[in-house]
## 1
Amino acid sequence: AAQSTAPLGLSSQWLVGFSFFLFPGASFSLRSRYRPQHVFFGAAIFLLSVGTALLGLKEALLFELGAKYSAFEPEGVLANVLGLLLAAFGAVVLYILTRADWKRPLQAEEQALSMDFKTLT
């Protein structure tokens, strides 16, 4: 299920993100309202992709090595190290996504206009 969900989610995320953030007709307030959903679904799709890669790695190991997996074959050790590195990469990316000090600084036009115009009322 995740094998088909991740590419479908990525495609829809890309299309909707393109229409909201790169299309010149989208307003700043519309962009600011969609941004939290964009970040959430981007992180969810990333987690699905990492999970799909880990499950594919495990499936390939079980089909290739079978009962020899517990004998610490070099292919199994290499795949396990790759799986650990992939899981660590996913954790680092999610950590960076959740940290406020890693966020992109506001551009000059965003600071001047106050994206939701809340300070003007």
## 2
Amino acid sequence: MEEQEIVQPVRKLLEAYRRDLEKTAVKPEGPTIGVSNTVSTLAFLYEKVRNAVDIKEEHLLRKNAIHRFLSRRLVSGVTGSQIAKPLIQEMIRARYLKNNAVLEKDALDLAEIIDKYIYLMNVVAENNNGSGLREELFDLVVDLASCEVEEKLCGEEKQEILAQVMYEVIHDDITFRGEEISDEERDVQVF
């Protein structure tokens, strides 16, 4: 790959890092969601002890914390708007999110995401009365919701762009031996 071709992906990566630094340096405009420092410390310690037993990547720890929260709170008749802000507060208390860094409007976006999965759970409940599959489907829906909520709250633009830059840099330099594969399969394997 020529130097000129490498420069553009690296510029994208540097731009993503710059935007991320700007986000953390600038205080958010508008009302934010905050929690008590004392309660936050206790919740943080609880999560650290809990996670010491289960060593995983950070995004998986956040996803699992969201999964536990949703499993407790997703009961009949609940709405996304009733649990979005408490979910954010719990994530702040456990220090998965920074205190006073999440905008209240983000809770509204989160409520829409949660409502989508509540609707899906209701469809599952209506169509699987008495089925043993119902609990498995509920857990699957909570897993999907947890992933989307984690991505919304903690999406890592830098990591996505870094992966894209690495792909662009090495894509043309990788060759496969043996049987021929399609360009599409090659792209999947490289990425």
